[in-house]
Amino acid sequence: MIVVKLGGSVSETAGRIIWELKNSGKNILIVPGGWIFADMVRKLETDDESAHWMAIAGMNVYGYYLSRYAEVIEPENFDFDVRGVRILLPYILLRKHDDLPHSWEVTSDSIAVWVAEKIGAEDIVKVTDVDGVYMDGRLVESIAASELSRETCVDSYSPKLLREYGRDMFICNGLVEGRVKDYIMKGEAKGTRIIGR
């Protein structure tokens, strides 16, 4: 199984991306981003605890928005099975398994890595609106999680989890047609692989 974090930044092309995923013949679990709903929470003057759960609830809302393209699942535990392409509604799962810090360091990026580890996914792909990680204005094809010392297109907690789990994450631009499909089908595409060390 492959975990695909589908960011709100590619909401306009989400239907095409999910169509590409469905045509790959792979079993794929989509973890939705927080999109405009998490952005709204950021604007509120509230504590980290409340903001954490409100933003995760926003992931559920984006998941429902995406449900016109694929079936949603809302499990309580990690014993679920994914056949084809499914969209995870993570709120109940995270309420029951409250393992992650309650801060803005943790976004849907970290949640996707955490879910992938829990279910034993083969790969983690972040689909967003940029080609990958840029250092000094240059796209980096591969970088160790430990080298991500500044803010990039992934949240600040994801590198910690990738190192802890020894897992990689590939960052792929979903606005470019065929890019996600190329990576899922061939294991190669323009983007950045963050290596879990």
Description:
The radius of gyration is 15 Å and the shape is globular. It has one domain: Acetylglutamate kinase-like (Carbamate kinase, 3-Layer(aba) Sandwich), CATH 3.40.1160. Strand 1, helix 1 and strand 2 form a beta-alpha-beta unit. It contains 7 helices and 10 strands. The model has no long low-confidence stretch (mean pLDDT 95). Pfam families: AA_kinase.
How do you describe this structure in short?
This protein has seven helices and ten strands. It has helices spanning 14-22, 35-43, 48-66, 91-96, 108-119, 158-165, 179-186, and strands spanning 2-6, 28-32, 71-73, 85-88, 123-128, 134-135, 138-139, 142-144, 169-173, 192-195.
Structural category is alpha/beta
Oligomer: single chain
In CATH terms, the superfamily is Acetylglutamate kinase-like
Cα-to-Cα separation, first versus last residue: 22 Å
Number of strands: 10
Strand and helix order? EHEHHEEHHEEEEHEHE
Shape: globular
- Report mean pLDDT, rounded to a whole number: 95
Strand content range: 15-25%
Largest sheet: 8 strands, mixed
Number of domains: 1
The CATH class name reads: Alpha Beta
Helix content: 25-40%
Rg for CA atoms: 15 Å
Question: Helical segment tally?
Answer: 7
Using the 3D structure, state the CATH architecture: 3-Layer(aba) Sandwich
Write the layout of secondary structure elements.
Layout: E1 2-6, H1 14-22, E2 28-32, H2 35-43, H3 48-66, E3 71-73, E4 85-88, H4 91-96, H5 108-119, E5 123-128, E6 134-135, E7 138-139, E8 142-144, H6 158-165, E9 169-173, H7 179-186, E10 192-195
Parallel strand pairs: 1-2, 1-5, 2-4, 3-4, 5-9, 8-10
Antiparallel strand pairs: 6-7, 9-10
GO molecular function, one term: kinase activity
Organism: Geoglobus acetivorans
InterPro entries: AceGlu_kinase-like_sf (IPR036393), Asp/Glu/Uridylate_kinase (IPR001048), MfnE (IPR011375)
